[in-house]
Amino acid sequence: MVSIVVVAHSGSGHTWVLAEAVARGAGSVPGTEVHLLDADVAHEQWDLLDAAGAIVLGAPTYMGSVSAGMKAFMEKCSRCYRSRLWQDKLGAGFTNAAGLSGDKLNTLIDLALFAAQLGMHWINLGLVNGTLATTDSPDALNRLGYFLGAASQSPVDLGPDRAPPESDRLTAEHLGRRVAEAAHQWALGRKAYAELRSRS
Question: Do residues 44 and 50 make contact, with C-beta atoms less than 8 angstroms apart?
Fold first, then answer.
């Protein structure tokens, strides 16, 4: 069994919709146990986080960067920096903003850099730009053309029951599946490598 933990901060609920989609995608891979944590209280679940094979981080993009709630969680994770508790875990990320761009790439970079500082391996989205994949780009996966992680757009006048759109939710599900599949491959590879080392 591989454990995936999704940690998300959400102000108006839109990013939480994506977090649920990531969790659904990860849970669709057989042999995967998924936990969804609110970033505000995730630090109360260190045992769960420390035991995870992969941690997926999600935050809205506020003022061109991660939200304060996610930043607070990231700073609490400094306990893992010197100890290397999360060394060689897999990581991935997602974000949401009201704007089509909204500087969401900077949020994904913040999340990826955080993971790198803790020695984690970042899993990218693994999709082509949605506008290149189909002529009906509003309904395509990765319709906004991000590669470092999943990104979505939710107009401020639409609640989380209507936004982000289905294509963005399916993109988040894709990310969750991709992370879970990578985590299984990583776990099998580590086991095979350990057995090889023990024979040499």
Answer: no
| Model confidence pTM above 0.90 | yes
pLDDT tens digits, 76-132: 999 999 999 999 999 999 999 998 888 999 999 999 999 999 999 999 999 988 876
| Short-list 94, 87, 9, CA closest to 43 | 9
> In the beta sheet, which residues pair with residue 61?
66
Residues paired with residue 35 on neighbouring β-strands, in sequence order? 5
Whether residue 144 contacts residue 103, with contact meaning beta carbons closer than 8 Å, is answered with: no
Cα–Cα distance, 74 to 55 (Å, whole number): 12
